[in-house]
Structure formats: C-alpha cells, structure tokens
Input
Amino acid sequence: MTDLLPLIVAKYNYWLYVILMMIGLYAMIAKNNLIKKLVGMNIFQTAIILFYVSIGYKTEATIPIIQGAHGGHGSHAAIHAADYINPLPHVLMLTAIVVSVATFGVAMALAVRVYQRYQTLEEDELRMRLSEE
Amino acid sequence: MDNYPALIVVAPLLAALFSGIFSWVEERFTYPTALIGMGLSTFSAYKILMRVLDSGTIQYKMAGWLPPMGIEYRIDLLNAMVLMLISSIAFINLIASYRNVEQETNDRKGSFYTIYLLFVTGLIGVTATGDLFNLYVLIEITSLTSYAMVALADKDRGPLASLNYIFIGVIGASFYLLGVGYLYLKTGSLNMVDVAGILSGIEGSSTVLVAFILCMIGIWIKMALFPMHVWLPNAYSYAPVAFARVVAPLMTKVMVYVMIRLMVTVFGLEYIFNTLNLADAVVWLATIAIIAGGIMALSQKNLKKMLTYIIVCEIGYMVGGAWMGNQLGMSGAILHILNDALMTFALFLAVGNMVYKLKKVDFIHLQGLFGKMPWTMAAFVLAAFSIVGVPPTCGFFSKWYLVLGAFEAGAYHFAAALIISSLICAILFFKVFEICFFEPMSEGHGHGDGHGEVAIAEAPVSMLIASGLISISLIATGLFSGTIMNKLILPFLG
Amino acid sequence: METITSIKPLLAVLVSLLVIPILVSSSAKPNVRESWTFIAGTIKLLLVLSMLPIVLKGDQIVLTLFKLAPGADIAFRVDALGMLFALVASSLYIITSMYSIGYMRGLNEHGQTRFVSFFALAISATIGAAFSANLITLYLFYEILSLATYPLVTHHQDEKSRISGRRYLTFILGTSIGLVLPAMIYCYHATGTLEFAAGGIFTDQLSKPAATVLLLMFVLGFAKAGIMPVHSWLPAAMVAPTPVSALLHAVAVVKVGAFSIVRVISGIFGVEFLTSFNLGSVVALLASITIIVSSCIALTQDEFKRRLAYSTIGQLSYIILGLALLSPKGMTGGMLHIAMHAFGKITLFFCAGAIFVATGKKYLSQMVGIGKRMPFTMGAFFVGSLSIIGLPPTGGFISKWYLVLGTLEGDQLILLFVLLSSSLLNAAYFMPIFYRAFFCSQEESMFEDKIKEAPMMCVVPLVITAAISFVLFIVPQPFLDLAQLAVKGFIGG
Output
C-alpha cells in the first residue's frame, strides 16, 4: 500500500481519466433512462479526450506557438522541443470532439424519435412495450 | 495519374456532397450522382489492384505531407483486394437496390444515397489508410452513417435498435482510441509502419500490451465477436434492406481486415504469438462464437435475423483463423474475408428481392417461394451452399484452409467447431428450403398438372441480374481460389 | 502406360449440364424437351465410349481444370475403374430416360421439367465423380450429387416426402460434412496431397489406431454406400418416383458411394498399407454384418420398393466386401459387381414402377397372380432377380463367382459363408414374389387373366436391361477387362 500512494499521486491525471471513464461506463450499462445513458456516453468520451490532452503536457513548457518566429530578434535562435507542449494530441482531439458531438447529436435525435413513438425513455418500459407488440 | 488512392475515397465523398445538395434541389439527380461516384471509385479500385499486383505496395501521401507527420495511404495486396471488394459490392448494390430504396425510403431517397456514399467512403478510407488515428476517424464515419441508416426504414424498431447500436459502437471506438493513445504515448507516432518500427525494440513494455489489448477489444466490439455481438442482429435486420445488403457483408469484414492489419503490420505476428500468451484463449473465444452464433441462428423465425446470426458465426471463423498462429490459418482468414463478403452479399441480395416482393421475410411468408421466385431462390440456394461449405462454391475453400490451419496448430476444437457450424448451417438453410419447397402442403399425392404451379412473381430484372451475377461469382471465386491465394494472399504474408 | 491430355472427360461431364437451360426453356413442349434429354445422353455415352479403347489399352486420360493448392486440384483422370463406372451410369441413363417418360406421363406427374433437369444434373455429377483424379474433386461431385438428388427424392412435395427428404439429407450430407470432410482435410494435412495414387498416399504418417479411425470415417462418411448403420436413408428415399429410385438408388447415387470407398481404399490408403495393418478385416466385418442384416430385413418388407432398397443395401456391401478382401480376385469381383448389380437391380426397379403405373399397386401382398397380367414385366423380373441372387445365366453370377474365389484366395471361410448364406437369403426374398405372380390358383389371383402391360415406354427399357443382364453372362468382357485392369493398377503390377 505504501507504494501505491506515490504512484497514484505521480500519475494522478491517468487515475482521473480512469475514474471518469468508469463513471461513464457505469451510466451506460446500469442506467435505465436513455438520456442518462447518453450522458454517460458523453462522460466516457470526454474522459478519453482528457487523457489525450494530458499526455501532450510537459512541465515547464509553454503553448506551442514559436515565439518571435515572424522576423523578430529570436528568429534565428534554436527551437527546443522541450520548451513547448506537444500540440499533436490536442489537434487530434479536435477531431475526436467533432466525432463525439456528431454521435451525440445522432443519438439525441434517435432518442427523440423513440420518445415520439413510445412516449417513454425508460428502458424497461420500452422493453415491455416491444414485447407486447 | 498516380492519384487513384485519393480518387477512390474522394469520388464517393464528393458524390455524397453533391447528392446531399441535390436532395434539397432536385431529388432525381441524387441517384445518378451516387452511381457516378461509386463507379469512379470502383474503377480506381481496379486500377489500384492492377498496379499493386504489378509493382507492389503503393504509398500515397495525402496532400504531399511526408509520413510520419502527414497522413499516408498505404496500399498493399491485402487492402487492394479489400478495396476492390468494397467498391464493387457497394457499386453493384447501388444498381440492384434502386427499386428497394424507392419502396422502403421513398420520402428520403436523397438522404439515403448521401448517407450510403458517406458510409462507403468511410469503409474505403478505413481500408486504405496507413495512419492509426485516421483509422479511428474513418471508423467513426462508417459507424455514424450506419447509426443513421439503421433508423431510416423501420419507424417502430429502427430508432431503438440504432440507439443500442450507438452505445456499444461508441464503447468499441473509444477503446480503440484509448489503445491508440497508449501507442502514441509509447512511440510518439501514428503512422502504422513507423509505429511498427519503433515497437520492435520495446516488446516487453506493458504499455504496448495494454495498447494492444485495448485496440483488439475495441475492434472486436465493432466486428461483433461473440459475446460482444448483441447490437448486430437488431441493427442489421431493422435497417433498410438496401443498406443491410451492403453493411452486412462489408462492415464486419472490414473490421476483421483492421484486426489483421493491426496484427500483421503494426504489432507484428512475432510479437503477438511469441511474446504474448493470448492466442489460445482467443481461438477458444472464436470457437465459442462459432457455436453460439449457430445455435442462436437456429432459434430465429425471421430470415433476416437468422442471417445476421450467421454473420456472428462467420466472424468466429475469421478471428479464429487469424489467431491460429500459422500461415494457413491467417491465409484462410484473409480468404474468408473475400468469400464471406461475397456470400453474405449474395444472400442479402436474394433477401432484398424477397423483401421487395413479400414485404416481410418471416419464415411463414416464404411458403411456396421456389414456385413464385425461382431465380431469386436459385441464387439464394447457391449462396446458402457456399455458407454451408459445399464445393465448388468459395465457402468450401476458405473453410478448407481454416481447418488445415487448425490441424497444423493442433486446435482440434476449432476444426470441430467449423465442421459443426457447417452442419448447423445446413440445417438452418434446409429448414428454409423446406418451407419454400413443400408449403403450402399439397393435397393427396401430388399428381396432376394443376398442382403446385404457382404463378411466377419475380423481382425486377436488374435485381435478378445482380443477384445471379454475385451467386455465380461465388463459384468462380471458389474455383480460382488457388490463384487468389498464390497471387494475393501468400505474397502478402510473405 | 501413357497419359493423354484430353478435354473429353470434361465434355462428358458438361454435356448434361449444358443441356439443362435448353430443357428448362422447352418446358412447354415435352416432346422437344425429351428429345434433348436423349441427345445429351447419347452424346455423353458416345464420349465415354470413345475413351474406352484408350483405357483398355492401359492408358489414362487426364485433364487439370483448376489449381487450388499443391496436390489438390480440380482434375479429371479416366482410368479403368472410373471408366467401368461411367460406362454403366451413362448407358443406363439413356434407358432410364426412356423409362421415365413412360412413367411420368403414365402417372401424369407434376413438375416434369424440374424432374428431368435435376436428373441431368445428377448424372453429370455421377460422371464427374467417376472421372475424378483426386479426393477433393470426388468430394465435390459427391456433394453436388447429394444436393441435386434432393428435389428428385422429394418430388411429390407432400408431408411424407418432406420427412424422407429430411432423413435423406441428414444422413448423406451429415456424414459427408461431418466425417468425410475432416478425414479428407486430415489426409491432406498429413501427406500434402489428395491424388489417388496406385499404392496410396500414406507411407508412415499414420499409426494403426489413427488409420483405423480415418478408414472408418471414410467408410461410414460415404453414406451413399449404405453400410450399416448409415443405411436408413435408402429405404426412406423410396418415396421418390420410381425412375429416380431406379437410376439413382440402384445405380448412380449408391454406386457413387461404393465407388468412393473403393477409391479411398485403393487410391488413398493403398492395398499394401491396409494389408500391413490388417485393416481390410475391419471393413469386411462391417460389410458382412450389413449383408446379412439387410437381407433379413428385406425378407420382412411388404412394400416392393422397400424390399428392393434393403436388397440394394446388402448388394452394395458385396462391393465393399470384395475390396476389403484385398486380394486380386476379390477386388475384381467387387468392382465387377458395380456393373452387374446395376443392370440387375435397375431391372427390378423398373418392374416395380411398371406395376405401379399399370395397376397402382405398391405392396407385394397385392401382387398375387400379376404374372398373368404382366408377363413381360415379370419375366424380366425373373432374370433380374437371378442376377441379384447370382445364378447363371446372368451377369450377377460372374461377379459373385469372383467374390467367392476371392474369399478362397484369402482363406476367409467365414466370409465365404456370409456370401453363400446371403445368396440363399436373396433367393428367399425374391423367388416367392415370382412364384406367387405366376403359380397361383384362379381364386387366389387378384388380377384378370388378360394381358395388360404398362405403357410401351415402361416395358421396353426393362426388357432391354434384363436382356443385358443375360448378355453380360456370355460377354462380360468390357467390364471384366476393366475390373482386372483396375486391380492390376491397385496392386501396382
């Protein structure tokens, strides 16, 4: 146990995303209401986005905009990659966010359809209605 | 002249854009647009296949950015084959399904074709890309479009089936994304070949192991490997038949392709079979998938549903073959991608024809179908024999390699599962044939000319031609499986 | 021995296949349709005959169509054994076609076009099986034959044929997929080839238990040969119209089963290999049990065709038994029996059908005195049953003679006893039929004393086949020569 605590503290960002992911997964599996499931789904996706964002981070580094690149005095100075955080994961996540928004949108639209047809979003009621037909 | 790898994706994408615009302006134009887009794509696929056969792997750098920074499309023998398969199946289906679309989604023809094209774009992209993250985005494009499609036809069941599909699909895709994240963490690259190069030095790393497992689970969920299959039967059977015809043969098969791609190109077979001790467990999982798929199919009362469970069963074939750990199994699995796509397509083409005429394909609706739709049934019978594995249809030959591979690896349980599933499929299809052939039961002893002569009420010719063509191609593919093996699959595996 | 590459075997297979579209398109004109059947049948027979001299010279005709994997191609090879079988099947096809016209029209059956089309497909597959050069090609045609005969067996499309059809498929398809396929793939796995070779393909890859299991998988897997306990599809298949029972269940289908076993024993395992492990006795035991038990069951059957079916089961095991003796004479007898039994048994089936067409009677107990009404039919029946029992002057005698010699050659006295007692049993279940048909008092007779035969098209074929059975006693040459040539090939002489 004594080893575990430093491990958790040192990599607290991973543990956070793991917890968030589990919350999302739990909601998707265990919740009865379709909207709650959708919220769970969103938390789940966001957890992964946070994970990606956090892996690009470096201590003591700044945002990846090269200072004085446009003809300033520092234009000839060497650029150290260690001075900037890694922009690639962040860029990737822009795409992932688009994907998750799109998925969420489609899912919401479908949920509306389900509600219009069955007047309920509770899964057990839906199942009952379906087996009646 | 060298831009075919781009054209194959861009053509359907642009066509989707235009048909989207046309669906607002003038709906009549959407169908021709789709045809042109798919036609161009098929043509490029053919060109690519020829070039790859001729001079080896094509590396296409999107917008001129060099890998590993830029996105690379890397087409070798394996994806050249799968690309050809995808584009031609999608193209033929477009021709065959014109009437089905009119019948099932008449008020939303424009949207149907737009989504259809986007779906195919996604599949082609998944197959062509050589970049791990790009793969994720394209998988999500195919998934998003299929979510929309599933909900399009059946207004009662569709949305709910689609919603359940979304929940599971998102979990699958997220697992994969997470796996890619770990890989990136370890290697700092997303280009498949680049990653493979870096990985070869750090095989012992537990991060790589986690990445591998996450990627595999994600892909298995997407391909509906038992017990992660629950979304598939409902989603596919409530989808409009014109879409089911293309999603059923292609979606799962493309995911199998992704699995094989990750195994062969990214992680390396050496790593998977020598460093990890997972293969036995996965082959057992595949064995269970085959048997379970077959048993679940037995209890169905609807033809479409039954076929979807057969897909679950066939997934087990390919996963098991790929994880067999020898060349025979892997080549059998790759051959089965091709064969299974063709036979599932043939089956669903026939089912589409039935749906067009009968509206519903519960078993009770199929009575006397041999009399009513002899040509459709002939095509259906051929495809069914291929699933059962009767020579000379192609299904026999992939089974042949798979069983040989199983013998070589000593995985007798997998060989037994393959044989048993053949028997189960025989029972399944002959159950259907019996209904179509014997019922409604005739009076007396069946003498006299008047009896049993039902008026023929066939589907339109365009549908029949497509159906017949694909069914005959099953035999052709079977007879030339030696050539396919020697020209495409064995050189790919080296 | 030379090997000649020729397209003739392919043509012989394809001709009936290619005629099917013509048959379907002329379904409105039965006479045109029937003449096409004859044209195709005649071309097929001529093609087969044209290859006969080459084969008799000891040469072989080969043709490779598709290369699947090394050692497993789709390929044809015409050798003595294949020739023997193809000759029987293609000549009887023409006669049966003639008969089926009389039968089907006489009964005004439905779906005649479907019937003749699948019949053509079935005969195509039979010839294909006869000319197969390796196990995978043989398996291919075996399966096509199983599936092509299903609509023929269930032709009546009623509840009874549905049940029988189900049993038919369960046995035939179940065993071929469940037993033969894995056995075949295992052979390929072990040896890397499936080519039928003179001395077999195994050298030392198999232990005795493994070889026994593999052999049994083949023998029982080719369920068309009707070895007990996988025989019960054959009596069930008797719901089919009689021409089907005649050609398919006395000649083509069942003989393809026996033929496949012969091929496996001679070409896959090899005589020497089986002798060294003494595996012939295992098969011989199965065959002997089948012979005795089926003959006893046949005694109890009252339905004419079912009795014939059980008789067929027994006779098929003669072929297997002959092969299992693994001695030259015994093997000659076994192969000769393929031909001799075919001509005899088809005559009997034709008789059963002719009686059904003329009188509507299916049960033997209703046929007392029928000889006076249908003398030609029952005369032919007499010749046919002599041939099955194995008495001179019929062809059946010759094959049985060789079988008996084979048992003596190997000092297998028990098997000799089996053969003789089975002959007695055969006589016991055939002779009373004939006796009651002719020698009964006026009061007992169920028929009027006036000659009223079945339609011409039914009677002529059965007279022809009976005549051939008789001629084969005097001139058994082509078949005997072929059988002896084949045996020479097996032993490797």
Summary: The interface with chain B takes residues 65-69, 73-74, 107-111, 136, 139-140, 143-144, 147, 151, 154-159, 161-162, 165-166, 169, 173-174, 177-178, 181-182, 185-186, 188-189 of chain C (CB under 8 Å).
